[in-house]
């Protein structure tokens, strides 16, 4: 019989529409305005006492709040308006001090029964939900100095193996300077360096009884180091953001030495800055022997007890760059530890060194690079300079019981939060050069709410205009098209929620475009039906021919648009990709609603009626 779906097809269409409605429902539950209170560092604890202090501060300021709770190691307080939220954030920051960070946030209100089946609202981009924007500067000179330190360590080791006596060898002002007791020793060292390292320009000179070899990086090598530092920092920052679980972040290069990071939905700037900007790394060194010369040893304090010190060898066995994986756990005493897995070269180096060091102690150095801007007077003018500092402290000093390989553990950490953060940083990789924050902006949810309201209003206005046009032109079938259009928008929202796609302001523009494209398919079908009726076909035959013969035109038009949207998604970034995502999903849902849902509604209402002599079209 014409215009009748089999039962299975009706059930399929009904199931798809029902699932679309269910997974679109969470978007009807708007997030609450909230303030999240967390520690300014991983070592600062957040507990019920802090929650009581926060509530007391708000009560004194006569600021209404509701649903105080502890959520993922942070205090969460909800408010009824953005004004109350902003006043509360200011009051809490003042009352709690710099030890804690009070950040604007949005708290989900989706019912538990929806969350239990994985139904959550769409992810919103930076322009809608708010978040943080950072502009970060890569310290290129520090990158060159750190590479020089590595070269210096390698050259020193080779000089000792060749039994060439020397002094110095530390990196200063972009070059290495070695001092030798004789001209022949200097010449032997110069030959060794020139044969092994083509990165340096060498210069020899004498100063009394000292024979000096100066090594300066050539321009090409310095440029390669800077490029590597920038690219490696980009990779490391992306890894760290992935560990944070932020949806649709933007991390890209700006200029020759800057990186832009945008994190939608992240309101806790303290956590974001701590994880992104941390230059923490590890070095593994043997404890110095009692008879070792002072030139080959260094003294460091312990991190948890600065009054206690230990001497370690200057030679570094491996660094955090050799870590392939790291995770936090607990030792046999219930204390936090980090389990480390080394890469191939790192494991081999650790095995070679510790094989002959059983019974000696292995020190783990925690290294933190920092920088700050200072002002000083030069010729009567104020000049701003960035001063770099490096802090090294021992977090673990343990006896080597047997040869170590690729797997071992680091203990001596203060708490679980510090262990988790160290494991995260080691997994994500160390920064090739220190970075510091040039610009920082927090985009609050109030601005995002304005964008959302403007976007929703544009969709509603577009929907109303299209719906009225279809009713005027196609009458009853126009109503059918409007029902299909409503289902299409529901499926689009549900699909984006299920797939975890991120909605941005350009994405809303894609939804508005989808509204127009969705009825375009119905227009093709209805016009074909009218043409078949003019040719004298019976009503049911005209309906069947209209849906069947319009399919090719609809498919061709949507395939070309789908390919263009796919290209935009593949090569575009940021706003372009957000537009492409909604357009791609919208094309699929509009074809389904135009060809399947519309046809199903027609089949149920008038399909198979042999007494039907005319259509309201």
UniProtKB/TrEMBL annotation:
Keyword Transcription regulation annotated: no
Domain SecD export protein N-terminal TM: 2-104
Domain named SecDF P1 head subdomain: residues: 298-433
GO CC terms: plasma membrane
Keyword terms of this UniProt record: Cell membrane, Membrane, Protein transport, Translocation, Transmembrane, Transmembrane helix, Transport
UniProt entry tagged with the keyword Cell cycle: no
Single GO MF annotation: protein-transporting ATPase activity
GO terms, biological process: intracellular protein transmembrane transport; protein targeting; protein transport by the Sec complex
Primary location recorded for the protein, binned into one broad class: membrane
Domain Protein translocase subunit SecDF P1: 230-287
Membrane topology, as annotated: Multi-pass membrane protein
Protein location: Cell membrane
Residues of the Protein export membrane protein SecD/SecF C-terminal domain: 438-603
Stretches that traverse the bilayer: 455-474, 479-499, 505-526, 547-572, 578-602
Subunit (UniProt): Forms a complex with SecF. Part of the essential Sec protein translocation apparatus which comprises SecA, SecYEG and auxiliary proteins SecDF-YajC and YidC.
NCBIfam families on file: 2A0604s01, secD
Main function: Part of the Sec protein translocase complex. Interacts with the SecYEG preprotein conducting channel. SecDF uses the proton motive force (PMF) to complete protein translocation after the ATP-dependent function of SecA.
HAMAP family membership: SecD_B (MF_01463_B)
Similarity section: Belongs to the SecD/SecF family. SecD subfamily.
The name this protein goes by in its record: Protein translocase subunit SecD
Upper lineage: Bacteria, Pseudomonadati, Pseudomonadota, Gammaproteobacteria, Oceanospirillales
